[in-house]
Amino acid sequence: MNLERLPNEEKLTLCRKYYFGGFAFLPFLWLVNVVWFFKEAFVKPTYTEQLQIKTYVKCSGLGFLLWVAVLTTWITIFQHFRAEWGEVGDYLSFTIPLGIP
């Protein structure tokens, strides 16, 4: 998508949609929001909607980093303790690995 062709009001609307879409457990939308709108928020000369876009981009970046931290922590804990959790660990697994843990 070429953001250069969109008017500033539509850029703000699109940025807002991606920001709120990230709250539906879709953190990938926050990453897309940061990548697409970073130049609009921090590099381009100032315009009226830029302050709101900058806020959405910052919050999207923070939300994405928080999701990555939580997901990485969970994956690390699960991989380390799955065998010790016994039956509960097996129920949480999509596939049960064979062999000695």
TrEMBL record:
Topology class, membrane: Multi-pass membrane protein
Protein family (similarity comment): Belongs to the PEN-2 family.
The entry's keywords: Membrane, Notch signaling pathway, Transmembrane, Transmembrane helix
Lineage: Eukaryota, Metazoa, Chordata, Craniata, Vertebrata
Principal place of residence: Golgi
One GO term describing the cellular component: gamma-secretase complex
Compartmental location: Golgi apparatus, Golgi stack membrane
Protein name, UniProt field: Gamma-secretase subunit PEN-2
GO BP, sorted A to Z: Notch receptor processing; Notch signaling pathway
Bilayer-crossing regions: 20-38, 59-81
Signal peptide annotation: none
